[in-house]
Amino acid sequence: MTEISSETRFLHAIEMGLGAWQWGDRVVWQYGHGYSEIQVREAFQVAIAEGIRFIDTAEIYGNGLSERLLGGFLQETDQPVLIATKFFPWPWRFTKGAIPKALKGSLSRLKVESIDLYQIHWPTPVMGTDRVMQGLAECVKSGLTRTVGVSNYGQSRLLAAYSSLSRHNVPLASNQVHYSLLNRAVEKDGTFARCKELGIRLIAYSPIEKGLLAGKYSPENPPPGSRARQYAGLLPKLPPLIKEMTLIGQDHGGKSNSQVALNWVICKGALPIPGAKNADQALENAGALGWRLTEDEVTKLDELSDSILEEKS
Ligand SMILES: NC(=O)c1ccc[n+]([C@@H]2O[C@H](COP(=O)([O-])OP(=O)(O)OC[C@H]3O[C@@H](n4cnc5c(N)ncnc54)[C@H](OP(=O)(O)O)[C@@H]3O)[C@@H](O)[C@H]2O)c1
């Protein structure tokens, strides 16, 4: 095990964060239909009141609107909030200088002078790993961000990023990837184990599987928008898992399915960043903290998730 560097240790102390893709995104989340600025401001306020202090956004979410909304909310609170955002590797951004330049744009939308974590959103064939890491390292050295991370990186790219950054004396803080009871690819392919070995924090996105693990969707009541097609094959297979999650939640004094789903991620050693459209969702998700599933419960959930995922593949 590599010792966690002092610069990135704070990320390992955070149990859970909040995702802000929903804030402004119309394509997947239909921002403006059924919820808007009032509701997402309340989601922010409730999360902060519940002790959540880490928020993940990206320049691409709502075309900058997520960062702008968050920037406004940050001005309205006196609480310290740790901010993570992401560089989107558009094909026309191929120089290392594009990275600090894009971060400056994010900082101005967020109305802050620096952030805590700057991530590359996806690997890019346009810029080689070394060039991307040079750009990220420059962001740390110029004080625009405290740490840097990657997102959607598999093991080989992760190792290349880690080595490249270390040549600049900058630690790789995190790898943000899809991880939930319904997507355990990083657990199965060794990426998660590699992160743990290298002291890289695994940040789990879609930890409620875009709402599916709340147990509110079914083939008869599919999620709206693009999720309906994305999950058409998975929805009929969910009942045994959801049933067990509900039973386990009851044994913990009435925890909800979403809380069980998030607690499972935490028990695995990852940092979940559930998205919330409103105060109710933010409040419920914050209730994933302060208790733990037993090892037997985690094993039982693993088995049920395996039987769904094996059937899927
Ligand atoms: N790096 C990447 O490539 C990447 C990719 C995806 C996401 N992310 C990040 O990860 C964050 C979370 O992932 P995600 O938004 O994809 O999925 P998620 O957190 O698994 O699901 C969020 C959605 O689930 C529903 N929901 C949330 N809390 C709920 C609750 N307590 N009860 C019932 N329903 C609830 C809401 O949608 P409905 O109410 O509409 O069902 C909400 O929009 C994002 O906000 C973003 O910051 C990063």
Largest sheet: 8 strands, parallel
The first-to-last residue Cα distance is 32 Å
Low-confidence region ranges = none
Number of strands: 8
Helicity range of the residues? 40-55%
Mean pLDDT across residues? 97
Order of helices and strands: HEHEHEHEHEHEHHEHHHEHH
H/I helix tally: 13
Structural class computed from helices and strand pairing: alpha/beta
How do the strands line up in the largest sheet? 1-2-3-4-5-6-7-8
Rg, alpha carbons: 19 Å
Q: Ions, cofactors, ligands: which are bound? A: NADP nicotinamide-adenine-dinucleotide phosphate
Proportion of residues in extended strands = 5-15%
The shape, in one word, is: globular
How would you explain this protein's 3D organization?
This protein has 13 helices and eight strands. Helix 10 runs antiparallel to helix 13. The model has no long low-confidence stretch (mean pLDDT 97). It has 313 residues and is α/β, with parallel strands linked by helices. The chain starts with 8 loop residues before the first helix and ends with a helix. The protein has an eight-stranded parallel sheet with strand order 1-2-3-4-5-6-7-8. The longest helix is centred in the last third of the chain and has 18 residues, at 295-312. Helices cover 42% and strands 12% of the residues. The chain has helices at 9-13, 37-49, 65-75, 98-110, 129-141, 155-166, 185-188, 191-198, 227-230, 239-251, 257-267, 279-286, 295-312, and strands at 18-19, 54-56, 82-87, 115-120, 145-151, 172-178, 201-205, 271-272. The chain is globular, with a radius of gyration of 19 Å. Bound molecules: NADP nicotinamide-adenine-dinucleotide phosphate (NAP). The site of NADP nicotinamide-adenine-dinucleotide phosphate has 29 residues, from helix 12.
